[in-house]
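Example record for the data management plan.
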Amino acid sequence: MAELGHVVFYVRDLQRSLAFYRDVVGLSVVDTLFGGRAAALSGGRTHHEILLIEVGEAPGPLQGARVGLYHVGWQVGTGLDALRAARDRILAHGHVIEGQSDHTVSLSLYLRDPDGNEVELYVDNPKVDWHTNSEWLIEPVKPLNL
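Corresponding structural encoding:
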């Protein structure tokens, strides 16, 4: 069995990125390392799902059509109330929601972290059994109104 263990991001300002992934995404800080230049965070599934390493001023992620990472997605609970709570956290911390989508199998909000990486916060749709039915894959993406 293989599963995604963690993602590592180079960031300009560790404290600013920590605040985003802790306060907006909802992860917990596991520990800091490398003399305070890095931090591991977890949602509780494993020892860390993301590692942030501060590099200072550097070019940001490429945008538009390119090869490489598109976005990372974080499941933020179960049901629309959890997604609404995520929306409220995003707005309360002054971030912009760039998109809201109904993917049939999941309901999602899209925003950017402080360094411009695209982040998806989502909840699974309990009405779709993706274990036994893959028809959701061919469904069009629909607008989501919270």
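Summary line stored alongside the record: The domain at 71-146 is CATH 3.10.180.10 (2,3-Dihydroxybiphenyl 1,2-Dioxygenase; domain 1).
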